[in-house]
Write a structure and sequence with these properties.
The protein is α/β, with parallel strands linked by helices and about 220 residues long. The protein has a single domain, classed as Rossmann fold. It has six helices and ten strands, in the order H-H-H-E-H-E-E-H-E-E-E-E-E-H-E-E. It is globular, with a radius of gyration of 17 Å. The two termini are about 25 Å apart. The relative contact order is 0.17.
Length: about 220
């Protein structure tokens, strides 16, 4: 296991060096190609509730066009919100960073989001307790009140990745946010009407100057 983690770390370093050389013009052009492809897919066209990652300033395709299109079509859009989670009752234990998917209400709200430490547009912390969670209720997972069971789950998850292999296995940024989210997603929908309706995973990355992948699996 340790050897695998070392190999992943080295691969991330190599890919980051490659991504630094991709011109902004190329990223913008590839972002448009991927978004236009996504817009033609029935998995997107038929989706009512969609999770979409918001892009870092560099090294990733821009999902701005996807967010705008989804909102303009009346889809319910959920975006990542990362926060600290206490894993034990001991305050001396370090907190871990985790991720929930919370509702983005409008185009105006999207345009007003402020960047976090990564430069990623982020939801206002003060709005979190009253914001719809994709897994039902409002607020973050461990504190939220339960809501209508019909307001649970997603039809499509658009997620980032640094690289993918030929079997579509994903190499993320190493923080484990999507591992945490997808694991909780599976637990939360177990026994619900959504349990038999797994969401499609749209995996987007910008691996080189030449290509950009949009994979549904």
């Amino acid at each position: 296991m340790a050897a695998v983690q070392v190999a992943k770390k080295e691969l991330r370093r190599k890919i980051q060096n490659l991504l630094k050389d991709v011109p902004r013009e190329s990223v913008n052009a590839q972002s448009t190609v991927v978004a236009n492809k996504l817009f033609t897919l029935p998995e997107y066209l038929n989706a009512r509730r969609i999770s979409i990652f918001l892009s870092m300033p560099t090294g990733e395709i821009s999902t701005t066009g996807i967010v705008r299109d989804a909102l303009s079509k009346g889809k319910e859009v959920f975006i990542p919100y990362t926060h600290k989670l206490e894993t034990t009752g001991n305050p001396s234990q370090p907190k871990v960073s985790v991720m929930d998917m919370l509702r983005l209400e409008s185009m105006e709200e999207f345009e007003s989001l402020q960047p976090d430490n990564w430069g990623i547009p982020s939801l206002d912390k003060q709005s979190i307790p009253n914001r719809q969670n994709c897994l039902g209720g409002t607020g973050v997972l461990e504190e939220r009140p339960r809501g209508n069971p019909d307001d649970l789950g997603l039809d499509l998850i658009v997620m980032p990745g640094m690289a993918f292999d030929t079997d579509f296995q994903r190499l993320g940024h190493g923080k484990g946010y999507y591992d945490y989210f997808l694991n909780n997603y599976s637990k939360e929908i177990a026994g619900s009407p959504r349990a038999s309706q797994r969401p499609y995973l749209g995996k987007l990355n910008c691996p080189s100057k030449l290509s950009l992948h949009c994979i549904l699996c």
